[in-house]
Structure formats: C-alpha cells, structure tokens
Amino acid sequence: MRMGEETGRKGLRPGGRSARVQAAVHAAVRDLLAERERGEISVPLVAARAGVTPSTIYRRWGDLQDLLADVALEQMRPDTDPAETGTLRGDLIAWVDQYREEMSSAPGTAMIRDVLASLEGSDPARQCCAISQAQLSVIFARAAARGEAVPDLDLATDLCIAPVVYRILFTDRPMDGDYVRTLVDRLLMSLRP
Amino acid sequence: MRMGEETGRKGLRPGGRSARVQAAVHAAVRDLLAERERGEISVPLVAARAGVTPSTIYRRWGDLQDLLADVALEQMRPDTDPAETGTLRGDLIAWVDQYREEMSSAPGTAMIRDVLASLEGSDPARQCCAISQAQLSVIFARAAARGEAVPDLDLATDLCIAPVVYRILFTDRPMDGDYVRTLVDRLLMSLRP
To answer: This protein's superkingdom (chains A, B) (predicted)?
Structure first.
C-alpha cells in the first residue's frame, strides 16, 4: 500500500533522479522534525540537509507549508491493509481505534495540522480524507464478500472519522476504546431495519 | 453575546487605551483581509494601518498567525442568541444550518483555518468549540424549560458539529438543508427510548 519515494507517487519513476530528490527531501524534513522545533525549520535548512538547492524545493513543492503537508500525507499512508478480525464490527473498531491513537499523538496531530496548513490548495486535506476512506473501503469490501451488510462510506466518515478529528483539533475531550466502540456501534445501528 | 473590543475581552476596560489598541488592530486586520491576498498580510502592514508599532502587536499577540486567530474568533462570536422556533428540533436545524452556511463560505472557512493555524497554542481552537457549544446550550436550556428532553452536549457536538467541520476542511462533499436535517434527526433519535 505504501506509495511515495519508493514507488513513484505523482508518476515518478522509482529510482529516477526526480524520485531520488523527493526521497532525500522527505527524509531531511522527517529528520529535522525529529530534531528541532517546528518553527526553526526552513526551506534553506531542509535543502542543506537534503543536498539540494532551495530553488529545487521551491520549484517542486511551492513553500515550506506545502512541503510539510506533502511529507505529512506520505506518513499518513498506511503500510498495510486494515487488520482482519473476521467481522465488520471487529475490523471497524480495530481500524478506528488505531486511527484515533495515531492521530491523537503529538506527531499525528502535527501531521493533521500540516495537511490543513497548506493554504494554497485544499488538495492535501482531500487526500488525507481519501486515505482514510480507502482503508474503510477495504474493510467494507471484505465484509460484503462475507455476505455482511455494509454502511455508506460518507455515513461512516461522518460518524466514525469526523468526531475523532474534531475532538483532536478543537477539544480536550479524551477518547478511548470505549468511545470508539460507541462510534462504530452507532454506525452499525444504521444498518438495522 | 458579542464580546471583544467593545466589552473588554481578556478583561480590558472598555474605552481604555488597551481596548482602543485592540479595536484598531482588529479593524486593520479585517480591512486588509478584505482588500488583499492572505499571503500579502504582515505584522508591519497591520501595524501601519492600525497606527501602532509592530512591537505592540508582537508583544500582545505573538506572531501574525496568533493575531489572525484572535480576529477570526472575534468574528465567530455570534451577535445574538440562536433563533427561537418553539421546538428543540426547529432550533437545532436553524442553528446548524446557519453554522453550515457561514462556515462553508470562503470567509468562514478561512476563519476556521486561521483558528487552527495558531500553532503555538490550541487555545483558539478550544474557544471556537466553546462558542458553538455555548449556542447549543442556549437551545438546550430553552427546550428543557419547555419540558422537552435534551441530548448530551458532547453527543450533539459529535453528531451535528463535527461532520460539518470535517466536510468543510477535508472534503468536497456538498452540504444542504436536507443534510442538516439528517444530522439533527440522528441526534434526536438518541433521545428515543
């Protein structure tokens, strides 16, 4: 599932010059984010670490916020399909709970904020939603193959993803596994006649 | 309900020097946002327009993002209580629909993004949520006074506010009055035995 520097996101040829530049710049950003305060990071600093010129970065990514959003999206892309538990409910609880845990963490929250801070285009935010919905779709396809009824993808987004993201961004309300089960059961109730 | 330059947010004495500076700086930001691209706005530009020194702004608001978040919050504070329709369902639909419409607009979406972009503290985002919840609380108190059952405030936030904000920030999914009615009816279903 993981795409990006390795497999040619944006149609880059893996191993080509362009892909190598992307890999070096992304790695430089990840390293710098681990070492420094976010406010200290700049395009010249990333360029120096990656061994490219600043103009290479400006040309390819626009400004620093767009680059940070690109790196955050890359990190949000899951390495694997959602865990398989044998039931729709089990798969959903496992996935939403992992999503809640990852996105509530300091790096996870920073990723969401980076995605949203790319002001010039809302494209990174759209991709962020698409990544989550692709995972839910895998879960739903499995359930359908087992003969289970599956909910609507937009409804699942409204009931299971939106509340988690809103709580992270706008509130201090804690979320735990019980909360996630409540969200999932509310969604599954919509399937009852 | 409206607080701010007029009534002394942060405990400012209305009409005092500090309140006048705040009013002038907020007005300068609103004017500049109406005239220019967001990326062209800077602290020195705001200071010149407001007739204060840049250091006054840095001292009081921190950086530009924090100032923009403060102005956005000020604009989010409603001037009036939610419209009164005579029923909980009617009040909720009217309020959520107005929230959806205002926040989906270009200035509304820019306000939400400004609130979130104040990276150094999550306080503006918490206040943004508190403003919405205060409005819902007014609606719920009215309903309770009429003898109607009222839902939990956190549940109302999860079911009626979170999906609207998530769709605005992360998707291109359109929302209309029918969508709002669906959200409100889902919340009211939770009150049924």
So the answer is: Bacteria
CB contact under 8 A, B158 and A163: yes
Residue A1 lies in a domain: no
**Other residues' Cβ atoms within 10 Å of the Cβ of residue A52:** 17
CB A67 within 8 A of CB A25: yes
Interhelix angle B106-117/B123-145, rounded to 10 degrees, is 120
Rounded CA-CA distance A173/A167 in Å is 6
B161 and A166: CB-CB below 8 Å? yes
Q: What does the pLDDT look like over B84-137, one tens digit per residue? A: 999 999 999 999 999 999 999 988 998 998 899 876 567 899 999 999 999 999
Q: What would the two tokens of residue A21 be? A: 């530049």
Q: Which of A119, A162, A171 sits opposite B166 (nearest CB)?
A: A162
For helices B43-50 and B64-76, the axis angle rounded to 10 degrees is 60
Q: State whether B181 and B107 are in the same domain.
A: yes
Is B171–A129 a contact, with Cβ atoms under 8 angstroms apart?
Answer: yes
A103 with A182, same domain: the answer is yes
Give the one of A113, A165, A173 whose C-beta lies nearest to B166's C-beta. Answer: A165
Chain B residue numbers with beta carbons less than 8 Å from the beta carbon of A38 are 119
B72 in a domain, yes or no? no
In a domain, A152, yes or no: yes
Same domain, A185 and A100: yes
Domain that residue B21 falls in: 9-61
What amino acid occupies position B71?
Answer: V
Q: Which residue of B has its CA nearest to A119?
A: B113
Render pLDDT for A5-60 as a digit per residue (tens, 0 to 9). 344 345 566 668 888 999 999 999 999 999 998 888 999 999 999 999 999 999 99
Asked if the C-beta of B129 comes within 8 angstroms of chain A's C-beta atoms, the answer is yes
Residue carrying the six token digits 């680059």: A67
Asked if ipTM goes beyond 0.85, one says yes
* A166 lies within 8 A of chain B by CB: yes
